[in-house]
Design goal:
There is one protein chain. Among the domains are: about 65-105, no CATH class; about 120-185. It has helices spanning about 1-30, 120-150, 155-185, and strands spanning about 45-50, 55-60, 65-80, 85-95, 105. The chain contains 3 helices and 5 strands. By secondary structure, it is α+β, with helices and mostly antiparallel strands. The relative contact order is 0.08. It has a 3-stranded antiparallel beta sheet with strand order 3-4-5, with no helix packed on it. Strands 1-2 form a two-stranded antiparallel sheet. A hairpin with a 5-residue loop joins strand 4 and strand 5. Helix 2 runs antiparallel to helix 3.
């Protein structure tokens, strides 16, 4: 029995020493998560880490931008038939091009094939105005005719009158859109 107690005690002692060694070792070395970034021709990442934490900056599509600087200076001093003629031009241009070769104009760009025609823009504007006018007319008609009749319903009249106003507004908006489409040839 004595050897059994000594054996169990030695196993427990070795286990405690192993656990203590593991805990001391894990507090010395910071553990970072394993992050696998998708690497490509135009991707880049920067990672900074320390005892207090880490910071990752990742750009999935980070192409090199082509900068173009153009300068034109023209000073022309010649004498004309009616007197001296002076022409002085200075042009400085700085352009940036994206990776597909289009000039960066500082905002979102659309291709010519994706743009809207003047007629479709005019139709969108006309539809918005017609919907707004129709919604106002539908609200006014429902407020004058339907709401007084519905408001007298016991307990839920106040709620039903609100629904009637919203229904009149929606119906007027749809009707205004249809009328605007007919009148504006859209």
């Amino acid at each position: 029995m004595k050897w059994f107690i000594v054996g169990v005690g030695s196993i427990v002692g070795v286990a405690h020493i192993g656990v203590l060694g593991h805990l001391l070792h894990s507090t010395r070395l910071p553990q970072y998560p394993a992050i696998n970034f998708p690497a490509g021709d135009y991707s880049s990442y920067k990672m900074e880490g320390g005892r207090d934490g880490y910071r990752i900056e990742y750009k999935a599509n980070d192409p090199t931008i082509l900068d173009s600087h153009r300068t034109l200076e023209l000073d022309k001093h010649k004498k004309g038939f009616f007197g001296p003629t002076t022409e002085m031009r200075r042009e400085y241009r700085h352009d940036q091009y994206t990776m597909d070769g289009t000039r960066n104009i500082g905002g979102a760009t659309t291709l010519d094939s994706e743009g809207k025609s003047a007629k479709s823009v005019e139709c969108i504007v006309a539809d918005a105005g017609a919907r707004s006018q129709g919604a106002m007319a539908g609200t006014a008609i429902s407020a004058g005719i339907v709401v007084p009749a519905v408001a007298s319903i016991p307990y839920v009249g106040w709620l039903a009158s609100g629904w009637a106003l919203l229904l009149g507004q929606k119906a007027g908006s749809e009707l205004g859109s249809q009328v605007g489409t007919v009148f504006n040839d859209c």
